[in-house]
Each structure stands twice: as C-alpha cells, then as structure tokens.
Amino acid sequence: MRWVFAAWALPMGLFWGWYFLSLNNIHFGYVMLTRDAHDIVFQLYGNMLGMDPNIIPGLVARACILDTFLILGIWAFRRRKEISAWVRGRRDRYFGVEPSPNA
Length: 103
Description:
Blueprint: H1 2-23, H2 35-49, H3 56-78, H4 80-95
C-alpha cells in the first residue's frame, strides 16, 4: 500500500506544485514555471480536448479528489478490522461499556 500511496502522491505533488508556481509566475529562472508556459500548456490541452482551457484545472482538481477518495477507500477497506477496533475503543472510552441506569 505504501507504493500505491507513493505512486499517487508523487504525480499529485509534482502537478500541483508546477500548477501553483506557474500560475503565480514564481519561476526561479525556469521557463517551464513561467506564466507563459502555464498558458501555453492549458491552451494546448484545451485545443486537444476541444474545450475552454480555463475549465481544465477545475476538471483536473475534481479528478484528483475522486482519486484521493478511491485510494482512501481502498486503504480503509484493507484496514477495516483495525479501524473498527479503534472506533469501538473510542466509543467504550467516551460512552462506557456499562449501560446507563434507568430512572
């Protein structure tokens, strides 16, 4: 599961790091991080997909959120016994295992 998290987090970090640096024109001397390169990349994607380039970042963000929920769902399914034991422990700690007295 560590490899799945790494294979998910590395491209996400690289893309969103590039996106926000190039969006704000923080380029450190690299041409790929300039706002001009940012606009060219999304214009190219927009032309290939036949859509407005301004809506592509939102679509990518929604896809990343969906991927995140899928990865977390798989992780939770694999760890469901540990998670249920943790929930039971928390419930017993806060609500107690003894039934409340009847008045």
